[in-house]
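Researcher: We're teaching a course module on how sequence relates to structure. For the next exercise, students receive a sequence and then see the predicted structure as tokens, so they can try to spot secondary structure elements on their own. Here is the exercise chain.
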Amino acid sequence: MNNVTTRPIYQGRMLRLNIELAELPNGRRCELEIVHHPGGAAVVVLDNARRVCLLRQYRHAASDWLWELPAGKLEPGEPAEQTARRELQEEAGVQAAEWRSLGQMHSSPGVFTEVIHLYFAHDLAYTQQQLGADELLEVHWIEGTKALSWASDGTISDAKTLIGLYRAAAAGLI
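Model: And here is the predicted structure for the students to work with:
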């Protein structure tokens, strides 16, 4: 996009909302509500028994418990893989020696700038969880084929988790 005029609406600790008057590649101008987010990282973790780490996490915005991969927000200046490593240790109490990128995804590109970096990790060592005050979650180790079944039947509805599991399966990792 060229020639963007921005009107700030809200600035919080995690995101910023702007009204942006943008010129699209076809020359049309339109007013867009854009939520700026620093991005995140998520990790598909596989143990020696070929089980995937899934978090059953309460999400207020969804008013429900969701099945998710360990994931979190990029901190300023923090590389995406470092975020994935940090979140895996904090949320699941696990460290991994082997890492592989599964690419990126846009969570909702019509309104969010958020890009989530996806990883696959294995060769694990177990440590201590370090949950934040706003995190309510349970760590579960689910057979890889069962996790993929949950992705297909709707048990898992979180987009980053679905894409991460499907990409890992397509790469022959699950």
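Model: If you want an answer key for the exercise: The longest strand covers residues 94-106. The beta strands are 2-11, 16-23, 29-36, 40-45, 51-59, 64-68, 71-73, 94-106, 115-126, 137-143.
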